[in-house]
Amino acid sequence: MHTNNRRLLSEAKKDLELAVVKSLCRAPLRPVELHELLSVDESDLMRDYGCDLYMAETVKQHAKQEKFRLRSQNQITPHEDLADLYPDKPYTRTSPLNESSRSGRRLVVTRQQLRRLIREERRRLSEA
Predict the structure, then answer these.
(1) Helix (H, G, I), strand (E, B) or coil at 27
(2) Would you give the DSSP letter of residue 70?
(3) Contacts (Cβ under 8 Å, ≥6 apart) of 84
(4) Range with lowest mean pLDDT among 60-74, 77-91, 93-107
């Protein structure tokens, strides 16, 4: 049993090493490799794999692009291993901001106030 766990750990390490090399070459990643890359951060890449900061950022950026590519591909040809690439809550237009009227004081601007604001901005832009 102990040797089986050691073999699985060795295979996982090989998958991650292969994913780092593929990312540096901008090659497409398999879902297993992508999951491995998403689980490490830049400091792990620099410490364990001898990457400098630029290489580590390149690897993480490529992993992000591959995640988007696999998400897009999954819409056409669904794959059950890619289900965890999506966020728990879907993205919305107002994701970081709550735009309900109950969240705070509503700002009401009259036509005169709006015209005055536009005049002031035009004047400020013409002076600059």
Answers:
(1) coil
(2) H
(3) 35
(4) 93-107
Smallest Cα–Cα separation from 57: which of 24, 15, 32, 14?
24
DSSP conformation letters of 6-21:
HHHHHHHHHHHHHHHH
Amino acid in position 47: R
pLDDT digits (tens, 9 = 90+) for 28-62: 998 888 888 988 989 988 898 888 999 999 999 99
Asked if residue 58 lies in contact with residue 23, where contact means CB atoms within 8 angstroms, the answer is: yes
Q: How far apart are CA 43 and CA 55, in angstroms?
A: 11
φ/ψ region of 88 (left if φ > 0, alpha if ψ in -120 to 50, else beta) reads alpha
Whether the CB-CB separation of 92 and 55 falls below 8 Å is answered with no
